[in-house]
Design goal:
Elements (H helix, E strand, L loop, with lengths): L7 E5 L4 H12 L3 E6 L2 H13 L3 E6 L5 H15 L4 E4 L14 H29 L2 E6 L12 H21 L3 E8 L12 H10 L6 H12 L9 E4 L6
Parallel strand pairs: 1-2, 1-4, 2-3, 4-5, 5-6, 6-7
Helix pairs in contact: 1-7, 3-4, 4-5
Family: Belongs to the short-chain dehydrogenases/reductases (SDR) family.
Protein name: SDR family oxidoreductase
Keywords: Oxidoreductase
Length: about 240
């Protein structure tokens, strides 16, 4: 199946930012979207917005730190639309701080959301993709994994782990499944809300030249719309002003 029209796409972290923008764009281009996030009021509003514009959307509360929730997201796609063509694993947190502060609980949360959340998505979708004989994993990573800087050690570590797992998955996937890693640079989202103040000040300065979430959504759409047999493996999307 090529293009976007008619594809069933599940998106985690769909309540805001890149996930929301991706769901809107893919629905506009004819995909049937299945929305997952923790904030149900945002999911309900987004689904209603998509349907008012003539699109098709379903939603379910999804906490990616719970394996059962990812199974529920994939299950809803199959129940509502009969299949799942693409899983966009986009949910993530960036609790950036100096290692000396020993924010171990923040480290654990980043591992649970950024890394284990992607693995739980793979565990839920891979058997479905194998059964169908087709499927596409799109994993949102970060340029933080390409250029490691102070304050971002654990965050970058989780993103690099996803990059490594994605490459292994690509090699194991065979010729019927696709795996794409999208690495955004600075993007205007609510990403900094829970950061250490020192880290937040640094990231907020970057936001002056940050991308809109739509730019990343277009990159994801580019990977999704490619014809069967074409695997866009790695996309980096960052502001021209970003070092």
């Amino acid at each position: 199946m090529s293009g976007i029209e008619g594809k069933v796409v599940a998106v985690t972290g769909a309540g805001s930012g890149i996930g929301e923008a991706t769901a809107l764009l893919l629905a506009e281009r004819g995909a049937k979207v299945v929305l997952g996030a923790r904030r149900t009021e945002r999911l309900e509003a987004l689904a209603a917005r998509i349907e008012r514009a003539g699109g098709r959307a379903a939603w379910i509360r999804t906490d990616v730190t719970r394996r059962a929730d990812l199974s529920g997201l994939v299950g809803l796609a199959r129940e509502r639309y009969g299949r799942l063509d693409v899983l966009v694993s986009n949910a993530g947190v960036g609790l950036i701080s100096p290692l000396d502060e020993l924010r171990v609980e923040d480290w654990e949360e980043m591992i649970d959301v950024n890394l284990k959340g992607v693995l739980y998505g793979i565990a839920a979708a891979l058997p479905v993709f194998r059964e169908q004989g087709s499927g596409h994993f799109v994993n949102t990573v970060s340029t933080a994994g390409l250029r490691v800087v102070p304050l971002q050690s654990v965050y970058a570590g989780t993103k690099n782990a996803v990059r490594t797992i994605s490459e292994g998955l690509r090699q194991e996937a065979g010729d019927t499944l696709r795996v794409t890693v999208v690495s955004p640079g600075a993007v205007r989202t609510d990403f900094t809300e829970r950061m250490d103040p020192q880290a937040r000040a640094r990231i907020d300065r970057m936001m002056e030249t940050a991308l809109s979430p739509d730019a990343v959504a277009r990159a994801i759409a580019f990977a999704v719309e490619q014809p069967d047999g074409v695997d866009v493996g790695d996309i980096v999307v960052r502001p021209t002003a970003q070092a």
